[in-house]
Amino acid sequence: MTKTVPEDKARQGRWGWHALRILIAGLLLAFIAWGAVEIYGEVIKSQTTGQSVPQAPAAGQKSTQGG
Questions:
Q1: Which residue did the predictor score with more confidence, 48 or 60?
Q2: Using CA atoms, how far apart are residues 8 and 6, in angstroms rounded to an integer?
């Protein structure tokens, strides 16, 4: 036998503050992770642009390295 529920009693659950807090916390954690990756990327970029990369001597020039 099916259960008959009156219309004023049949409703969905309310939104709830707990779910909202979890969603906001997840969003904040995503922004923190994004910021950390941005900072790490800038540090890596500044380290690679500050160093000189050794290049092979041009054609016709003598190498100063032994070998």
A1: 48
A2: 6
